[in-house]
Amino acid sequence: MASTAHPMAVCVAVIAKENYPLFIITIPTENELKFYYTVHTSLDVVEEKISSIGKNTTEARELYLGLLYPTEDYKVYGYVTNTKVKFVLVLESTNTTLRDNDIRTMFKKLHNAYVDMLCNPFYTPGENITSRNFENIVTAMMQQD
Amino acid sequence: MADEVLFDFLHMELVSYIHHSCVKEDNVKDTSIAKLESTGFRVGQSLIERFTKDSARFKDELDTMKFICKEFWNAIYKKQVDNLRTNHQGVYVLQDNKFKFLTQISNGKQFMESAPKYLAFPCGLLRGALSNLGVNCIVTAEVSAMPACKFQIQIQRS
Questions:
Q1: The whole model's pTM is what?
Q2: Starting at the edge strand that comes first in sequence, how are the strands of the sheet with A11-15 ordered?
Q3: Domains in chain A and their CATH numbers?
Q4: Which of A35, A63, A82, B2 has the fewest Cβ atoms nearer than 10 Å?
Q5: How many domains are contained in chain B?
């Protein structure tokens, strides 16, 4: 293992059903804007994937969408809940330790945290997520190894 | 078994609390029903997120409705909807022959006028759940004989 701690994921984003960001967190904070672009471009791929699901009945209608697209430096994964809230996860391409199943588990964890956060009566649906609890779960998930 | 009755009590208390808090308003009935409906809406939004967490993606609108009639109803009222009807043009009618919140009220004309306030929260619940699933609709309830109740869902297409 390298001495520098590699994060599991470099960026996690929660996108509302109307496609505006509810929550974005990036690990190298200096390049935040780049990740906003990456997440934003991934939404088209997400849209394409969910619209194709309805037509193809044989396909497993899973919430996890798998790898959306790879770039030179990153791999982008997607997950859409039944309420059309999108989760996007950006990983470094050099990160080869994570399998598809690990990613699925991370998304499940993220979804659970989101549901718990939504059940807070003081949160108004559609607002930016400011819950500290949610943020802690996400950052812990991004850094664990 | 006792845990099921807690929800009944909580709902009764919610109705009476909201009703009493609106007594000073001009139109007690309408304001309290509107308040109950919007409370239900918010609760429905959160609940559906939790209930659909592990279910597969819905194929279409009818698939969503079936989920509401089976899983959603079962989770809240411990029974399934008895009858689901649709005209395939955006109107769905859900019939429950023994609606949980009406079982404690005696049958007969006497209490018919107090039925709406016990159905406002469930209507909101239904509307909130459907709206979060991307189905915008109007939900109305109709009672003809006491424990039976019909919920009519009218899909709003824009």
A1: 0.86
A2: A21-26, A11-15, A86-92, A74-80, A64-70
A3: 11-143 (3.30.450.70)
A4: B2
A5: 1
